[in-house]
Amino acid sequence: MNIAPEDKGKEVATEPHPLVLLLQEQLAAQKAEQEQIKEDVKHLTEGQQHVLKTQEDISFKLNAILAHLSRQP
User: Which superkingdom heads the taxonomic lineage of this protein's source (predicted)?
Assistant: First the structure.
């Protein structure tokens, strides 16, 4: 490639290679998917904590009922 002396040091404006554009699109899609997965995991974790709390509440109530029934003649 011949560069004229007056053009030396000047930035050459070229279009990105189509493969670079494709990779950028794929990276953006993967980032969006990763963010969605993070959000899904957050919701699952919150849901799991709610289930555990509900199980503890039910267990406490069941134990109270069983203790009450065992005291009756």
Answer: Eukaryota
